[in-house]
């Protein structure tokens, strides 16, 4: 049996969501999906197109992205230049396959809040904002959200504020993967180290599922490749 | 025609209540020396525009210079966390946060660059941002009858852009990612360049294919080596972690003023008018 | 992943009635080999889009392949004069000329690149073009109540762009003026590159800062040295005056067919699949 | 007395219309204004910003523009790159001082026709089109039209079709200079070699003028500079 951490599992599970040939975008503060995209390119998806804010298409390495996933290193290591404004346009045209986005609150109906807690104009808590979410979640073919926190305040019956909704596909957390299907956030798989009871206890709405599946564990090859492409463990930045 | 100006003089041209587009993105190539001088000169009521801001917006909020922020995202990246001064300013009602999708900032600047009052945005379809913000409106497309969301154009009075190389006339070269800076230089009424290096006419000629902002669009050139610090400047320096972390922990107005004062020697190093090639 | 295709195969993918954006401008870098092959394959009902066209539009009109032309200007430049075949086709009602200001073609393509149904244009205020063309409409700006003219977006099915250098995957470099080609590559559903030279992965890597169209936007790469002739191709060849003048004098359909046939050897020189680096 | 041709006079008169520091644009088939802009830069307007379709800002020479004023040579000789789409945007923002435009028919009310003779949808003669005119004449601060033909079919009481109108400032022909003032095309000056009678005979509407002024003749310095910067006489291309 292989030895891995939860950040390894999440990174590999994200990589497994990506298919060869897809155009895939990540934004700022997105080390985990950045590493996952690079992992997918190294293994099963060599023709995946890796897009990012600074504009480096298919960076040959992500080893310099120490504190930022929007730095010049991605352009320096990239094979061509295709910056943010054009990536947005690409998504508007229906040509962005996958977008990785964040958020702070999610509800069972697939609504995302990255804006405020409390009144929008006089907020109790001002959140960083949805960045590209409000235009990418409706237009990317598949929006994937990753979140390193899974608690009842994150997954709620009804979000405080709807920053956006749309083509949400999956949400991955340290406990499970949700899939958005038939208008509801449903349990896709739970991670091997947890239980349905724990996931339910940490989720603010009643879990929807037909059967219990477990998230695939990272393979030895994935873990080995991860160590090569992400030696400084940026994938765990948020842990 | 040389457009070289001291940092102080260039900042003096900024009126209170101006709309300022700030170059760079999150922790990269923000025009920090200019931003600090805005705070030193106690500008007020500034309307800041940027897709994704961090230390620049946070510092001006801490200094009490800001009225509104139009942005898609305001935060330091993961390792540094959230922008305490911006959050506090918004939560106490000092600053109005106009939340955009980053793309709608881009669209609003594209609108300004073409001098049209609005831009249609196809992706903005759902959610409360449309409802709660008067700069978004849904209309009927006159060609098809389908609904289409418009964002009101944002016309910056000034774009402030920090670059690696610029000649005295204003031909400016950005190394590495350009973010929204080139667009800002076309959307703003005036353009102020702060630059790591003043390069000679000969050098700029050798690199003319790399000029991102041609001189005739530029109103002033300010020579400030280190002018993006403590954010990064590609090919020149990386983020300066220590002051960034220190700033995040500041609480009092006086501490903020001191933090800004501590940069004076660096920010003014070219003020003596020395011509440096 | 190599996207190399023969000229014939690439042109076979173009359906009749397609909307085609043609790269280049007037007498420069028009994708003439591709245009000639469109004529040879007797495409019909094509909808051509270009700010300022000349020999490309004129030849396809002469061949009877065109339904509409959306352009701001169709003419050879001064020394060669007016486009006889285009004029005749429009005057006999064979071809519909949708006259734009060059800028409204650009706006309409910008609209397509952002997938919005229209773009506002501030400059188009007066005159009969607004009245007579259903792709212009004047509406009220919902933010200010002022009138604003909209142009309907033009969504090209295919952009055909001739470049100096391209690798097999489609990373394309345009030397000299880019005209509207980069925009077209972002506005069209598919992009076909015809290129003077196929360069190696190593060469493209050395020049990656110059890539104008990244490979992932490109559907097919066609190796056609001389593919812009008789228009000019910067750094490769200047206009070929003799055939241009000859073409302007042609009257009969048969003469036009012969003129096009005479280019076959040149246009097909790479068809044998030889890999040339 | 200096020896000059009508193309020299027109080119110098155009150059004299331009002021130092202005941003000035010419399009295709525009050799005469191109040479005039270059002349102005060499003499009284060194800070004039020369803009053109291919995007070469302030080309150091125009000697290679043999058959085209939209060729790569202007970029090669330019000091930076600022292409057509951005020049249009610049004009929309009110930052283009002067635009040089063509046209085939002009009327006393300042209307320009570059589109059709006859019905727009079934024209008797399809003209090349107004190119940028329809957006530049309304937005450039001063639009200058040059035309190497001056006859009663060119200058008419009422144009067949209004391609555009707007900030038309001057029209220069082989016979005279018109100025658009108070909503009417008025005689600004007539060239030294002609007479008021000749200009009237070649003009399809009644000339409006208060006094007769003559167009300034080229100076020796202008002619000498012209020979240096335009040795192949592109300024006479349309003659």
Automatic annotation (TrEMBL), chains A, D:
SMART domains hit by this protein: CoA_trans (SM00882)
Key words, A-Z: Transferase
Keyword Lipoprotein part of the UniProt annotation: no
Gene Ontology MF terms in the entry: CoA-transferase activity
InterPro entries attached to this UniProt entry: CoA_trans_fam_I, NagB/RpiA_transferase-like
Gene3D superfamilies reported in the protein's UniProt record: Glutaconate Coenzyme A-transferase (3.40.1080.10)
Pfam (any one): CoA_trans
PANTHER family: ACETATE COA-TRANSFERASE YDIF, CHOLESTEROL RING-CLEAVING HYDROLASE IPDB SUBUNIT
Entry similarity comment: Belongs to the 3-oxoacid CoA-transferase subunit B family.
Protein name as catalogued: Glutaconate CoA-transferase subunit B
Organism: Gracilibacillus ureilyticus
Organism lineage string: Bacteria, Bacillati, Bacillota, Bacilli, Bacillales
Automatic annotation (TrEMBL), chains B, C:
Highest taxon above the source species: Bacteria
Pfam assignment, any one: CoA_trans
Database matches in SUPFAM superfamilies: NagB/RpiA/CoA transferase-like (SSF100950)
Entry keyword set: Transferase
Keyword Transferase listed: yes
GO molecular function: CoA-transferase activity
SMART domains: CoA_trans (SM00882)
Keyword Transferase: yes
Family named by the database record: Belongs to the 3-oxoacid CoA-transferase subunit B family.
Protein name: Glutaconate CoA-transferase subunit A
High-level lineage: Bacteria, Bacillati, Bacillota, Bacilli, Bacillales
């Amino acid at each position: 049996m292989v030895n891995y951490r939860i950040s390894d599992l999440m990174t590999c599970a994200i990589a497994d969501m990506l298919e060869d040939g897809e155009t895939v975008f990540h934004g700022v503060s997105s080390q985990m999906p950045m590493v996952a995209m690079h992992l997918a390119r190294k293994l099963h998806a060599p023709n995946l197109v890796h897009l990012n804010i600074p504009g480096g298409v298919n960076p040959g390495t992500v080893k310099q992205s120490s504190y930022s996933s929007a730095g010049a290193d991605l352009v320096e290591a990239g094979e061509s230049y295709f910056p943010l404004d054009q990536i947005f346009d690409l998504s508007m045209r229906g040509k962005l396959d996958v977008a990785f986005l964040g958020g702070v609150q999610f509800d069972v109906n697939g609504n995302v809040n990255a804006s405020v807690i409390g009144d929008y104009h006089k907020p109790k808590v001002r959140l960083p904002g949805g960045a590209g979410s409000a235009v990418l979640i409706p237009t990317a073919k598949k929006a994937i959200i990753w979140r390193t926190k899974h608690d009842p305040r994150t997954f709620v019956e009804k979000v405080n504020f709807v920053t956006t909704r749309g083509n949400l596909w999956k949400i991955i957390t340290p406990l499970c993967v949700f899939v958005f299907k038939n208008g509801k956030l449903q349990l896709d798989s739970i991670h091997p180290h947890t239980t349905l009871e724990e996931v339910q206890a940490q989720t603010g709405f009643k879990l929807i599922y037909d059967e219990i599946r477990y998230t695939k564990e990272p393979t030895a090859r994935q873990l080995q490749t991860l160590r090569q492409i992400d030696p400084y463990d940026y994938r765990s930045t948020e842990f | 025609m040389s457009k070289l100006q001291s940092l102080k003089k260039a900042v003096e041209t900024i009126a209170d209540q101006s709309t300022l587009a700030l170059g760079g993105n999150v922790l990269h190539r923000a025009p920090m020396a200019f931003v600090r001088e805005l705070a030193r000169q106690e500008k007020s009521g500034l309307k800041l525009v940027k897709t994704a801001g961090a230390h620049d917006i946070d510092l001006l909020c801490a200094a009490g210079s800001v009225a509104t922020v139009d942005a898609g995202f305001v935060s330091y990246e993961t390792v540094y966390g959230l922008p305490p001064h911006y959050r506090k300013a918004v939560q106490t009602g000092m600053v109005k946060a106009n939340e955009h999708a980053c793309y709608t900032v881009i669209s609003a600047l594209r609108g300004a660059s073409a001098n049209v009052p609005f831009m249609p945005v196809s992706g903005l379809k759902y959610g409360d941002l449309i409802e709660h913000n008067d700069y978004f409106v849904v209309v009927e497309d006159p060609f098809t009858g389908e609904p289409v969301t418009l964002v009101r154009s944002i016309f910056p009075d000034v774009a402030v852009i920090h670059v690696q190389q610029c000649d005295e006339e204003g031909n400016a070269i950005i190394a590495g990612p350009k973010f929204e800076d080139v667009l800002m230089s076309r959307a703003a009424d005036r353009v102020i360049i702060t630059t790591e290096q003043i390069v000679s006419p000969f050098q700029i000629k050798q690199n003319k294919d790399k000029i991102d902002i041609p001189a005739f669009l530029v109103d002033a050139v300010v020579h400030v080596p280190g002018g993006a610090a403590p954010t990064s400047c590609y090919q020149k320096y990386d983020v300066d972690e220590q002051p960034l972390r220190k700033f995040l922990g500041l609480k009092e107005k006086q501490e903020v003023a001191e933090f800004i004062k501590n940069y004076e020697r660096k920010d003014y190093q070219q003020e003596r008018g020395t011509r440096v090639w």
